[in-house]
Amino acid sequence: MRLLSERVFCNWIVYLLVIGFLMLDAKQGISSQNITTSSERPLISALPDRSRLDTAIVYYSETLGGSREALSGASLMIFNDGYMLVFRPAYMRLAGIYETYLDAATLDQLWHNLTDEKILAFDPMLIQNKIQAIKQPQPTLFSTVDSISDAPTTQIEIYPNRYQATILFEQGDWQAKKSIAWYALRWTAERYPDIVEIRYLLFVQQQLAALMERPDLKKIE
Questions:
Q1: CA-to-CA distance for 162 and 57, rounded, in angstroms?
Q2: Per-residue pLDDT tens for 112-150?
Q3: Which keywords belong to this entry (predicted)?
Q4: What torsion do the CA atoms of 191, 194, 197, 200 make, to the nearest 10 degrees?
Q5: What is the pLDDT of residues 52-111, one digit of tens each?
Q6: Helix axes 196-211, 124-135, angle to 10 degrees
Q7: CA distance 158 to 179
Q8: Is 60 helix (H, G, I), strand (E, B) or coil?
Q9: Which residues neighbour 53 within 8 Å (Cβ) at sequence distance 6 or greater?
Q10: Domains of the chain by range and CATH?
């Protein structure tokens, strides 16, 4: 298995992930959903070894806690050659930085799911409108428990033009990204099972979370 040995690069990856965690919004509902183009550079492009960082195709993280102060959870980054980094903060068991390579079949299937129209066209306002439409006919059904505290905020960032681009996303800009953040994703999916976009987002989140438990992950720091 190929392993990345440059310690400087790994240190900057830690810096990136920690800063990324601090930028997450832990409020209920969608905290961000935007497209970044070449005029609005993503954070990773400002770090050293840009030739490597500019090949990142997906970033995933969970921020723990809702109403209380947010606590950074584990995160991962995957690059277009299949290289994957997993970061677990110091308070976690097995804390540290881990790496592995995904085989082509695993990466292709993951990419197929990540670039589904339900992800690339995910619109938080549309989802909120669907939720309100479901709640209005039966207000008493949702009045008892209409929110949940201290659930995680899920954040997923995808760079659709960096790996097997089957559609032209944002004119094919290499730096264009799709960002989705949703508070209490599992709770929302269970409470509103008829909202297809939320169910599919949970499906993708579960796939990414499963990758972080792979037995072939090797600790590098």
A1: 6
A2: 999 999 999 999 999 999 999 988 766 555 544 455 667
A3: Membrane, Transmembrane, Transmembrane helix
A4: 80
A5: 889 999 999 998 875 445 578 899 999 999 999 999 999 898 899 999 999 999 999 999
A6: 120
A7: 7
A8: strand
A9: 16, 44, 45, 47
A10: 7-135+151-219 (3.30.1560.10)
